[in-house]
């Protein structure tokens, strides 16, 4: 059950990544006539254009739908605006059942925002130690952790449920939060990154200055590892935010639900309570906006990180 | 998969205290043992608690059976050997669901990765303008959780509420024949952009000099893509394929959401749904056995895929 990802090849692959995206203007063959290049160009733009519609229309539809009241939702063009009732819908959503939606959003922020923060810190410390210190058992630990990268979160949900039932902690905040702070992928990525981007000389210099190991980590190393940390944080954040099986199997009390799971629960009872439909749509839109904004703002970081994970 | 942490503890003990050491070969002392423990132990402990122990506990639970004294007697768990596993192999709905997700994977994974590769190659070619826009537009669905994506597409597929009613009234996307592929569409929609970016990152890492000779020889973009770029991004393709295969076998959120749109999606539609349904009966021992079998199947499939692709690369 050891590593399936080739660890040797992964080491030190970041060094070669430095010139990404700068020197490359594309390998355009010089001296070709514009007519000759028109057909492939138009074809490429057409393909990308069609798929842009495919990827964005559902989100556009959700945006439009969440601005409509119930009658307009059924009676007007689904892809264009009618009377603008967005804020009424939001107000109704926030008021429904004493603001349970806001409670869910807060839960999600705690599970995903805080959970990913703790996960990133723990993974960074471990990955850093595995990269920068020599000690027996180092490779064994790394391989065991790497095995964990291949264990999908859903496969762990039932085992975790059995364990938490044993200690009677199901249907608590901790049942979803605690398993979320473990990120084997984070250890893998931070190790690879620390190996390439934290020079030993710098650590030696810091030691000569009399700084302890832990202090050096928090003041010097963690800054150099920052792009990798942002990547780990983002992907762990998304993993927790999207996690479905764990809340499904662990949680019974509505006030503990993360927002995606709460929306699932509402959506499942739309047939009995049709008024929920508007809440599901508006709630869905509001819940994805923070994610999209975060990804767009931080793209400089995670794109580097994605490359690190995939290059071998 | 045991003892990841204990090794650290043992090795961290200072070796100097050993008095009359014969010292067969000089071994370098571990430097900064305290720091190593401080860095590794927190993650190690939690990894042990929330990865290793649950897996061990699930295996243990899968070996138990519930026995009752009489019909209304108290239930006790006793060791039952492989009884649960025998039940797993006789359980028809489970194997139907396994077959269903395999069929899903065989069709959906190549389509998704094929599209991702095509888009990545186009982004990397000089043919395209507005690359930054396309890159973001295609990636945005990844920020949409599977549950939300399934809810959106559930509405878009519905015969009465869809913006494309002319289509959805005539084609029953939520019927028994097509609903699996409607779910495949949701998964593809979410993950194409993500896979595209992984492949694109690895295309960007190819030094431009590699193409120069090909361009001098008069090779067009298509030829360069086929003969140079695709072979060089193989590792990224293999990586994305393995994660897609794992994801397919673990399919849960999207079909679970689709149950409210389509009566064709049963409570045992995918293996994970079977596990959930079984655990809420509650029959945790059988559910644990399902889990173990599914985890093993996932590992075997990923490793087999890795083996095959490695061999091809060497040949």
Note the topology.
The complex is a heterodimer of chains A (312) and B (315).
Chain A: H1 7-10, H2 34-65, H3 70-75, H4 86-95, H5 100-132, H6 138-149, H7 153-166, H8 173-180, H9 184-197, H10 200-208, H11 213-224, H12 226-242, H13 245-250, H14 259-268, H15 276-297, H16 299-310
Helix pairs in contact in A: 2-15, 4-15, 5-8, 5-9, 5-12, 6-9, 9-12, 10-11, 12-16, 14-15
Chain B: H1 6-12, H2 33-62, E1 64-68, E2 75-79, H3 83-90, H4 92-124, H5 131-139, H6 146-157, H7 165-168, H8 179-204, H9 209-216, H10 221-232, H11 234-249, H12 253-258, H13 271-279, H14 284-314
Antiparallel strand pairs in B: 1-2
Helix pairs in contact in B: 1-2, 2-14, 3-14, 4-8, 4-11, 5-8, 6-8, 11-14, 13-14
Structure, described:
The complex is a heterodimer of chains A (312) and B (315). Chain A has 2 domains: 36-85, no CATH class; 99-310, MetI-like fold. With 312 residues, chain A is mainly alpha-helical. Residues 1-33 of chain A have low confidence and may be disordered. Helices cover 71% and strands 0% of the residues of chain A. By secondary structure, chain B is mostly helical. Chain B has one domain: MetI-like (MetI-like fold). A two-stranded antiparallel sheet of chain B has the order 1-2. In chain B, a hairpin with a 6-residue loop joins strand 1 and strand 2. In chain B, helix 2 (33-62) crosses helix 14, helix 11 (234-249) runs antiparallel to helix 14 (284-314) and helix 13 packs antiparallel against helix 14. Chain B is globular, with a radius of gyration of 26 Å. The two termini of chain B are 32 Å apart. Chains A and B meet through helix 2, helix 5, helix 6, helix 7 and helix 11 of A and helix 1, helix 2, helix 4, helix 5 and helix 6 of B.
CATH architecture of the largest domain in chain A: Orthogonal Bundle
Which secondary-structure class do the elements of chain B indicate?
mainly alpha
CATH level 3 topology of chain B: MetI-like fold
| Domain unit count of chain A | 2
Measured as a percent range, the helix fraction of chain B is 55-70%
Structural class of chain A: mainly alpha
CATH level-four homologous superfamily name of the largest domain in chain A? MetI-like
**What is the molecular shape of chain B?**
globular
Unreliable stretches of chain A, pLDDT < 50, 5 or more residues?
A: 1-33
Q: If helices are DSSP runs of H or I spanning 4 or more residues, what is the number of helices of chain A?
A: 16
The helix-strand sequence of chain B is: HHEEHHHHHHHHHHHH
- Beta strand % of chain B: under 5%
Radius of gyration of chain A: 24 Å
Q: What is the CATH level 1 assignment of the largest domain in chain A?
A: Mainly Alpha
By DSSP, the count of extended strands of chain B is 2
Global outline of chain A: globular
CATH-defined architecture of chain B: Orthogonal Bundle
- Kindly report how far apart the N and C termini of chain A lie: 20 Å
């Amino acid at each position: 059950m050891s590593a399936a990802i080739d660890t040797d090849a992964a080491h030190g692959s970041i060094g070669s990544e430095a010139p990404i995206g700068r020197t490359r203007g594309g390998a355009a063959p010089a001296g070709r006539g514009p007519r000759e290049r028109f057909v492939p160009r138009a074809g490429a733009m057409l393909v990308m254009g069609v798929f842009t519609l495919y990827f964005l229309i559902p989100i556009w539809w959700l945006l439009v739908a969440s601005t409509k009241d119930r009658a307009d939702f059924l009676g007007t063009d689904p892809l264009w605006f009618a009377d603008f009732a967005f804020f009424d819908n939001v107000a109704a959503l926030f008021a429904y059942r004493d603001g349970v939606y806001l409670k869910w959003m807060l839960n999600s922020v705690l599970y995903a925002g805080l959970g990913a923060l703790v996960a990133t810190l723990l993974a960074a410390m471990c990955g850093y130690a595995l990269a920068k210190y020599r000690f027996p058992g180092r490779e064994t630990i790394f391989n065991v952790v790497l095995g964990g990268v291949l264990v999908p979160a859903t496969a762990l949900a039932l085992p975790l449920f059995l364990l938490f039932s044993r200690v009677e902690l199901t249907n608590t905040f901790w049942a979803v939060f605690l398993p979320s702070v473990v990120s084997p992928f984070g250890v893998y990525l931070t190790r690879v990154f620390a190996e390439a981007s934290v020079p030993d000389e710098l650590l030696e210099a810091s030691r000569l200055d009399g700084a302890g190991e832990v202090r050096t980590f928090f003041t010097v190393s963690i800054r150099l590892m920052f792009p990798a940390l942002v990547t780990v944080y983002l992907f762990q954040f998304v993993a927790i935010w999207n996690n479905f099986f764990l809340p499904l199997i662990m949680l019974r009390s509505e006030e503990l639900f993360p927002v995606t799971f709460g929306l699932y629960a509402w959506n499942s009872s739309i047939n009995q309570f049709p008024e929920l439909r508007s809440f599901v749509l508006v709630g869905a839109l509001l819940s994805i906006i923070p994610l999209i904004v975060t990804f767009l703002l931080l793209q400089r970081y995670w794109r580097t990180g994605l490359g690190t994970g995939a290059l071998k | 998969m045991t003892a990841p942490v204990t090794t650290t503890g043992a090795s961290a003990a200072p070796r100097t205290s050993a008095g009359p050491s014969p010292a067969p070969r000089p071994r370098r002392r571990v430097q900064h043992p305290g720091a190593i423990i401080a860095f590794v132990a927190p993650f190690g402990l939690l990894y042990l608690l929330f990865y290793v122990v649950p897996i061990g506990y699930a295996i243990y639970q899968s070996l138990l059976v519930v026995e009752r004294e009489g019909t209304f007697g108290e239930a006790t768990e006793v060791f039952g050997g492989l009884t649960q596993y025998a039940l797993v192999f006789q359980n028809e709905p489970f194997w139907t669901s396994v077959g269903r997700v395999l069929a899903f994977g065989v069709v959906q994974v190549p389509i998704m990765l094929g599209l991702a590769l095509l888009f990545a190659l186009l982004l990397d070619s000089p043919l395209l303008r507005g690359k930054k826009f396309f890159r973001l537009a295609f990636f945005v669905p990844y920020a949409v959780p599977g549950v939300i994506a399934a809810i959106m597409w559930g509405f878009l597929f519905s015969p009465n509420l869809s913006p494309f009613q002319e289509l959805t009234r005539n084609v029953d996307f939520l019927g028994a024949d097509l609903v699996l592929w409607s779910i495949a569409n949701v998964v593809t929609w979410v993950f194409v952009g993500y896979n595209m970016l992984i492949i694109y990152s690895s295309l960007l890492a190819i030094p431009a000099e590699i193409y120069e000779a090909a361009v001098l020889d008069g090779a067009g973009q298509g030829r360069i893509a086929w003969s140079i770029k695709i072979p060089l991004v193989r590792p990224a393709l293999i990586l994305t394929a393995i994660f897609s295969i794992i994801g397919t076998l673990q399919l849960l959120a999207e079909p679970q959401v689709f149950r409210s749109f389509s009566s064709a999606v049963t409570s045992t539609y995918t293996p994970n749904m079977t596990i959930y349904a079984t655990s809420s009966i509650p029959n945790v021992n059988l559910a644990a056995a399902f889990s173990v079998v599914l985890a093993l199947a996932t590992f075997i499939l990923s490793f087999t895929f890795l083996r095959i692709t490695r061999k091809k690369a060497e040949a």
